[in-house]
Design a protein that fits this description.
This protein is 51% helix and 7% strand. By secondary structure, the protein is mainly alpha-helical. It is rod-shaped, with a radius of gyration of 81 Å. The termini are far apart.
């Protein structure tokens, strides 16, 4: 305690003044805390603890210090409530206008007609495709049939041509044989007539010459003379000295050739034909020196000697 001042005794503070001061301090603290809580809630921040001391200026220095009141518990901030926005009002769709039954019936009829038309078009398209396929098959069938007929016709024509050629060949061979027979008969007839003439002349006692005989004496130059004449009529351009052909020539006493028979071929048809043509062109053939001829004369024609 402080000593009393001059002029008076000590002044002791009253007890109810202390309680009043405490109550006032608590009220001040409560108001301060309220403002702090409002500020924290408004700013959504953690409140800051604030301590304040309030001194009563009327309290004397000698008065004992007031006990420090315990801080009132700070109320926890209430969680912020998120308000869900109210649902949007449901907007009902306007009712569909009712269609006129007559219009609906016309629309259904039109739709049915369109469907029938589309179905007819589809059936027509399918029928057209089927007809085209059938036409192609028919055309192919006809083409195959025609090709087959043409082939058979060509084969038949070839067969007929072959048969005709064979007939012509046989006919030509027959005609050739008949001609050869006729020629042989004519030659034999001519030979017989010539022999009869010669024989008739001899029977009359005439002084015949060597020309009336077909035998005669041997003549070494006779064959050479005949070969020389045949050589002059030979037409053959190839050069092959190995070719050689043998022929028998039948002639009349006059030297006229009435038959040519091939005894040995040269192996070349062209050379054989050339020799035969040359013999025919050389008729009549030369006679012997005594005027006689050999009725059948066999000669060998070597190409190396015919140059």
């Amino acid at each position: 305690m402080k000593p009393a001042t001059a002029g008076g005794p000590y002044k002791v503070p009253r007890q109810h003044d202390n309680w009043r001061s405490i109550t006032l301090a608590v009220a001040m603290h409560a108001v301060l805390l309220l403002f702090l809580w409002v500020g924290v809630s408004w700013q959504n921040n953690e409140p800051t603890e604030v301590q304040a001391e309030i001194w009563d200026m009327k309290v004397q220095d000698a008065a004992p210090p007031a006990p420090t009141p315990e801080p009132a518990p700070q109320p926890e901030p209430e969680p912020e409530v998120v308000k869900t926005p109210p649902p949007a009002p449901k907007v009902e769709a306007p009712p569909e206008p009712k269609e006129d039954p007559e219009i609906a019936l016309q629309r259904l009829k039109k739709k049915k007609l369109e469907e029938e038309k589309a179905e007819k078009l589809e059936q027509a398209r399918l029928k057209k495709e089927a007809d085209e396929k059938l036409a192609k098959l028919e055309a192919k069938k006809k083409a195959d049939q025609k090709a087959k007929e043409d082939k058979e016709k060509a084969e038949q024509e070839e067969k007929e041509k072959a048969l005709a050629a064979e007939k012509e060949k046989k006919k030509a061979a027959a005609e050739k044989l008949a001609k050869e027979k006729a020629d042989k008969a004519a030659r034999e007839k001519a030979f017989a007539a010539e022999m009869s003439r010669i024989t008739g002349n001899a029977a009359k006692g005439s002084t015949g010459t060597a020309a009336q005989s077909t035998g005669g004496r041997a003549d070494g130059g006779y064959a050479a003379a005949i070969r020389a004449k045949i050589k002059s009529n030979l037409v053959y351009g190839e050069q092959d000295d190995s070719l050689s052909a043998t022929y028998v020539i039948t002639q009349l006493p006059s030297g006229e050739v009435i038959g040519v028979r091939k005894v040995k071929s040269s192996g070349s048809i062209a050379y054989d034909n050339a020799i035969e043509n040359a013999i025919t062109k050389s008729s009549p053939l030369p006679k012997k020196k005594d005027g006689t001829v050999e009725r059948d004369l066999e000669l060998v024609f070597k190409l190396k000697e015919m140059h």
